[in-house]
Design brief:
The chain has about 450 residues and is mainly α. Helix content is about 75%, strand content about 0%. The N and C termini lie far apart (about 60 Å). Pfam families: Chromate_transp (PF02417). Keywords: Cell membrane, Membrane, Transmembrane, Transmembrane helix. InterPro entries: Chr_Tranpt_l_chain, Chromate_transpt.
Length: about 450
């Protein structure tokens, strides 16, 4: 694979919904072996490696998440104090990992003033209001904002308004001068210096040239090199795939919002399918969306959500496997746990894989459409801002005890702040792997129990 092709596929994987690592290996195998090879790689991604590591990534990690869900469902509502301390330590360490992911992704997504603003607004807006329709609206707002900014539509309106104000001010000054009474003023011819004349002329020429430029300065444009390797599927196939996806998505959302007495499995699938469609920016973004679309519905308790999140962070593979765990927990009492796990797996991974398949076929054309690239930039920045929302929400429910079985704020004891900071610093400055920081957080939770209960 050419280096340019690899870079473009990497950028495309990061820009579209779904787990970036899974989509990347899927794209590489499609380019080399076709659609069937890509689908097989999606299902058994890193399965050979899992024989050595005892865990896989996407598929085998999902199996581990399902097994975890079965175990958590059998846990009683009341646990020993030492277990609550262990879980609180795991949760505090998880908050540190997610905070680190938010900072790192912000550095990549916030490349200019407008994307920095969108990261900030995404996080702030996510804190101030919660609703199932709210996050998609924020994504659309982010896309529209960067398109307007990159095409300088607001800049043009501002410049026209300022020019009109200046002309009005000049006319007012002229009228004032004409109305004054006094002796006539003798005008003298003034010859501008040669260098000043040249400077003025060159300035006018630069302004004229700048006014003819498009919304994207030529010197900052990225020259795209043709990459025929990405056209392994026909553009007709890509259009068909994307069209069918959005048609089915619309049907699912309409049924979800209008039909009463829906099968419980469909309700879980629809919520997770919506989350899988609007998750831009990688695994950490999935956490706030899943919390709102599953916990807020009352299908999964905050305790089970936090417990599964903390342990799933120690599993290899994408954070999207967490949806498998939630699907198995959510359908308890309605469907078999295995059915819920399959529902979660298909709903969370399906949209990203389907859209990536269709977009790969059209990428040669889409990569040259500036508004499309601008829209993806805004969506990504807004989605990254939502990770900070997840940090706050998880912090507010990370502490578990016999009194707070559904979770309370981690600021009840400074020790949990230390655990969170240890996780953040360990990953940021010392490159400690996430599973190791999770285990360390659990150990620190047990230490806290030993100190406070003696």
């Amino acid at each position: 694979m050419a280096d340019e092709t690899y870079k473009e596929m990497f950028a495309l994987c990061q820009a579209l919904p779904g787990p970036g690592s899974t989509k990347m290996i899927y794209a590489i195998n499609i380019i080399h072996g076709g659609y069937i090879a890509g689908m097989l790689s999606f299902l058994i991604w890193r399965w050979v490696v899992s024989l050595t590591l005892h865990f896989g990534s996407a598929f085998s990690g999902a199996i581990a998440a399902y097994a975890l869900a079965v175990g958590v469902y059998r846990i009683s509502d009341t646990l020993p104090s030492i277990v609550y301390a262990l879980l609180s330590g795991l949760n505090a360490a998880t908050v540190g990992i997610i905070a680190l992911a938010a900072v790192q992704l912000s550095q990549k997504a916030a490349t200019d003033k407008i994307t920095r603003i969108l990261v900030f607004l995404g996080g702030s807006a996510g804190l101030l209001y919660n609703a199932l329709w709210y996050f998609p609206v924020l994504m659309v707002f982010g896309a529209a904002t960067t398109v307007v900014w990159d095409y300088r539509w607001c800049h043009n309106v501002f410049n026209v308004t300022r020019a009109r104000m200046n002309r009005s001010r000049n006319r007012l000054d002229t009228s004032t001068e004409e109305g004054r009474a006094g002796e006539p003023v003798m005008l003298q011819d003034v010859t501008l210096p040669q260098d000043l004349s040249n400077t003025t002329a060159s300035s006018v020429q630069r302004e004229s040239t700048a006014s003819r430029r498009g919304p994207f300065p030529e010197e900052n444009e990225h020259q795209v090199v043709a990459s025929p390797e990405t056209n392994v599927l026909s553009w007709e196939f890509g259009v068909t795939v994307i069209t069918c996806f959005f048609l089915t998505f619309i049907v699912i959302m309409v049924v979800r919002g209008t039909v009463h007495d829906q099968p419980f499995g469909f309700r879980v699938f629809a919520n997770l399918y919506l989350a899988g469609t609007i998750i831009f920016g990688g695994g950490p973004v999935v956490i706030p969306l899943l919390r709102e679309y599953v916990v807020a519905e009352g299908w999964v308790s905050p305790r089970d959500f936090l417990l599964g999140l903390a342990i799933c962070q120690a599993f290899p593979g994408p954070n999207f496997n967490f949806a498998v765990y939630l699907g198995a927990i959510a359908v308890a009492g309605h469907l078999n746990a295995a059915a819920g796990a399959i529902i979660g797996y298909i709903a969370i991974f399906g949209p990203g894989i389907i859209l990536h398949t269709g977009t790969m076929s059209l990428w040669k054309n889409l990569r040259n459409i500036r508004w499309f690239i601008s829209a993806l930039r805004g969506i990504n920045a807004t989605a990254v801002g939502l990770i900070y929302t997840a940090v706050y929400r998880l912090w507010e429910q990370g502490f578990l005890s016999e009194t707070f079985t559904s979770g309370s704020s981690l600021d009840l004891d400074p020790w949990w702040v230390v655990v969170t900071a240890t996780s953040f610093v360990g990953g940021h400055w010392f490159n400690v792997p996430a599973p190791a920081t999770i285990v360390l957080g659990g150990v620190m939770g047990i230490v806290w129990y030993g100190v406070t209960k003696t």
